[in-house]
Amino acid sequence: MALFNRCRKNFQCYISNLTDPWTNLAVEEWLFRHTDPSIVLLYLWRNAGCVVIGRNQNPWKECNVRLLRNDSIPIIRRKSGGGTVFHDLGNTNYTVITPRQNFTRKHSADLVARAIRKRFEIPAYVNERHDIEIEDLKVSGSAFKIISARAYHHGTMLIDTNLSHIGRYLEIRKNLISKGVESVSSPVTRLRNYSSTVNHESFCDAVLQEFSINYCGNISNPIIVDEELLLKIPKTLDYRDELKSWDWTFGQTPEFSIEFQKTFSWGHVVSLIIYCIILKGLVFMPKL
Amino acid sequence: MFIPTTFGFISSKVVPLYAPTFRRAILRNTFRNTPGSRFGALSFKEFSCKKFTKDHEWIVVENNLGTVGITDYAQKALGDVVFVETPEIGTVVEQSGACGAVESVKAASDIYAPVSGEIVDVNKNLAETPGLINKSPETDGWLCKIKLSNPSELNDLLEENDYHSHCEKSH
Fold first, then answer.
1. Type and span of the H or E element at B59
2. With bands split at pLDDT 50, 70 and 90, how would you rate the model's confidence at A284?
3. SS3 string of A141-154?
4. How far is A249 from A261, CA to CA, in rounded Å?
5. Biggest alpha carbon–alpha carbon distance for chain A
6. Cα–Cα distance for residue pair A277/A202, rounded to 1 Å
7. Interior angle at CA B163, CA B161 and CA B165, nearest 5
8. What ipTM, to 2 d.p.?
9. What are the pLDDT digits (tens) for B2-32?
């Protein structure tokens, strides 16, 4: 494949200059499933404002769907597990794709934290949940995916995100009981609070340098993901269409129930539980 | 190949009386089409066997019906399972095609069908108790049942000893 003419090593970096979240996730899926599984890939990308939920999560539980629709911020369901995150251009994502037998949850997070310490002199470290923190505040969360020959670790990095949007849009609904996976909330901070020189470009450069030295011993040239490259990998359009579909975004939600309670002036509390299953659309089954 | 016996080696072309295939043949001829026999209508029960894939799934086949799950090795690697995505009943799967997924605290992992066939049952207990996969990965934590469309695919899979060797090499 022509894309790998420059790669004679066991490592290659891709940096996206696109900001459409569905496109970036589709490119990630293509890199994961359609490139040489023996090569370690680093993919750096950022999205315009969106909320990204985990593979088995409930969007109605994890975020304010109505507010997001009113503010024209899309919800995207990714293929990996884990919790819900808010993305904007102040957040940079990194994906590390390795052969399955080399999969560890710690190694890539350690490299990213080390890159931040060395380049920006920010005291970042990896905690026991494999998040990256600074002074007990989270700057990066991770999720993981394993298939037959490969595995990936992808994570966020809050560089310059508008943190108020996280509280505004990510609001856990307590009366919704989901059989899916629930998010774990953490107090957050961002790299810009600790360094005036950090931005998307300098972060990408620092991470690329750290990974290059670790895997090849010298600096690797990245391949830029742009509209011209997308024309050479049309399969990404199929992945993008799937990610954008209602069936995937909302239809994959596991069973859930919503409980409504009302207290009347005469003292009785009436509870109504509605069980919801999504089968080619939303199906409600009330049960008193 | 030559089969060792008390009296030395015999050619495998002469099948000993204790060989499973010979016993099956005798029993089949005894009970099938026997007039007045109360066993005449019985079909013979094939031996069940447990096989493994390199991707850490197991399958036990009985009467052309395979019960599928992930191995103890896989559940240990995954960690605590928090959600199981089971395939839909009626889905036709191909060997090595995706037939579900498991999300654990460590990762989301695809599960692959050891053989081709139709999904005829799924373990509904996993919806309420995904941790069954950690507690009993190779018994109560089964994932789905497949009606085999090509039983010869079982020959592509690993025996238990070979699977354990494969796991040791992966370390």
1. strand B57-62
2. low
3. CEEEEECCCEEEEE
4. 29
5. 78
6. 46
7. 70
8. 0.79
9. 334 333 333 334 444 444 444 444 434 443 4
CA–chain centroid gap for A182, Å, is: 15
CA–CA distance from A38 to each of A2, A132, A149, A232, B153 (Å)?
A: 17, 27, 9, 22, 27
Inter-chain CB proximity A55 and B112 less than 8 Å: no
- CB contacts of A98 in chain B (<8 Å) are none
Helix, strand, coil percentages (3-state) for chain B, rounded to 5, are 25, 30, 40
Residue B52 has what DSSP assignment? E
Give pTM, 2 decimals.
Answer: 0.81
CB contact under 8 A, A81 and B103: yes
| Cα dihedral B148, B149, B150, B156 sign | negative
Q: How many CA atoms are closer than 13 Å to the CA of A200, on its beta-carbon side?
A: 18
> Are A44 and A108 a contacting pair, CB within 8 Å?
no
Which residue in B83, B96, B108 is closest to A80 by CB distance?
B108
Report the residue of A148, A253, A255, A277 to disrupt the B interface, i.e. the one with the largest count of B CBs within 10 Å: A148
Is A255 within 8 Å of B127 when comparing Cβ atoms? Answer: yes
